[in-house]
Amino acid sequence: MNESKRLKRSLLERLVRYCHFMQDKVLDEEITTVSSAQVAAYAELDESQVRKDLAAIGVRGTPRVGYRAADVVSTIRDRLGFDESYKAVLVGAGRLGGAIISYPGFAKYGLHIVAIVDSDPRKTGSMISGLVVQPMHRLGQIVRREQIELGILTVPRASAQVTADRLIDLEIKALWNFAPIWISVPDDVHVRNEHLSVGLADLAYHLSG
Amino acid sequence: MNESKRLKRSLLERLVRYCHFMQDKVLDEEITTVSSAQVAAYAELDESQVRKDLAAIGVRGTPRVGYRAADVVSTIRDRLGFDESYKAVLVGAGRLGGAIISYPGFAKYGLHIVAIVDSDPRKTGSMISGLVVQPMHRLGQIVRREQIELGILTVPRASAQVTADRLIDLEIKALWNFAPIWISVPDDVHVRNEHLSVGLADLAYHLSG
DNA sequence: CTCAAGTAGTGATTTTTTTCCCGATTAAAG
DNA sequence: CTTTAATCGGGAAAAAAATCACTACTTGAG
Question: Does residue B50 contact residue B43 with C-beta atoms inside 8 Å?
Fold first, then answer.
């Protein structure tokens, strides 16, 4: 049901945050309804912003009561596609790869890392969170056999674009890049560059100001 | 000289990207000038956007030639504070902490991680990239003695806010949080939450669309 | 020396995003 | 049943961001 129109990235970020807040509320404090004002206070936004965002994804509240937290969570999850299931391959079994794969929340978003690949023969064969690190030359087989849609890049900067290109050639649908470079991709592939230097710049800027 | 007015976050992100592009150009291809069109093509933006951004930080180009890449880089670095020096403490010597500390580019942004702290006695005393992991109870001493301005949080979700509060109490200036939670801080502390779930949501959304 | 073409600079315009505001609705109290 | 207070919904206004369109400048060619 999550079609209608493309959600803007900023909206998407806010929704994720609302969702977190709601889940905390619902799970931790057993509150069933929340007002836009409460959400706004948490997310440090305007109340109207929250109401508009929720309206945009079709959540309805009731006057004098607020929104049902469970509604908000389930609608966000539905619209954002968290309840579907996606397979991913992680390329690059270094420290960063290890850290990312141990992130305790992929499944909650529908993401399943089904394979790990690394070009270093010293790493292949070892186990990382229940998966055997595969050699690079099996990437194609793996992606095709498992019908993998997402590639997670935790390779060094120098091999990031090359690896991306290879995955694109294997008709991967999306890339999540952690190498310090902006990967370029064709229009039909979605890429998210998780670039530490943006954060670094943000901090340096604020510390210097 | 980096005062005048607060740069918007979106502008900041674009500037970081310009800077990367320029550095690649200058270093790799020995090109000394670039046109706004080239930068725009790389960053997938409008040419005017690039010109406005560069004008905003005071970079001047010359008609028929473009901008001097070296100018752009040095002005961005100056305005964003990369040439100053900041001390940071990393709290949480787990996998993620290890991955982050080994990121090969902190120094380029003026950031120096001068201490690592962890609450787990099994980790204290061990070495991570040249630093001895210190026990948690020495955090205060370390922050004060070294005059640390930035705290990098790579602790588990459950201890993130507590650790943040402690650092805030030690009058830290900024926090870089990698735990999957939005840290809340007083107005005078700058926080950047590096929240993997935003990326995850972005990907799930695009894969489902 | 003049002309042509490429490029920066910038004011105007459009689009998008955010905020403001108020009427409508609901639940609870009297 | 009526009143009151809290809250949503959505239109309007304001602010911010992006894009457009044009001018002016600079270089290199003829």
Answer: yes
Q: Which of A38, A52, A204 is nearest to B176 (CA)?
A: A204
pLDDT band at B5 (very low <50, low <70, confident <90, very high): low
Inter-residue contact B144 to B134 (CB < 8 Å): no
User: A81's torsion region: left (phi>0), alpha (psi -120 to 50) or beta?
Assistant: left
Q: Which regions of chain B does DSSP assign to beta strands (E)? A: 33-34, 67-68, 86-91, 111-118, 127-128, 131-135, 150-153, 174-177, 190-193
What predicted TM-score, i.e. pTM, was given to this entire model? Answer: 0.95
Domains and CATH numbers, chain A: 9-80 (1.10.10.10), 86-198 (3.40.50.720)
Chain A (64-93) residues lying within 8 Å, Cβ to Cβ, of chain B? 79-82, 84, 86
β-sheet bridge partners, residue A33: A68
pLDDT means per 10 residues, chain A with 209 residues, are: 66 97 85 96 97 98 97 96 97 96 91 98 97 98 98 97 98 97 95 95 93
Adjacent-strand bridge partners of A94: none
Shortest Cα–Cα distance, B65 to chain A (Å): 26
Paired with A190 in beta bridges are A174
Cα torsion B6, B8, B13, B17: sign: negative
Residues 149 through 208 of chain B touching chain A, CB cutoff 8 Å? 149-150, 173-174, 176, 180-182, 190, 192, 194-208
C-beta separation of A166 from A139 below 8 A? yes
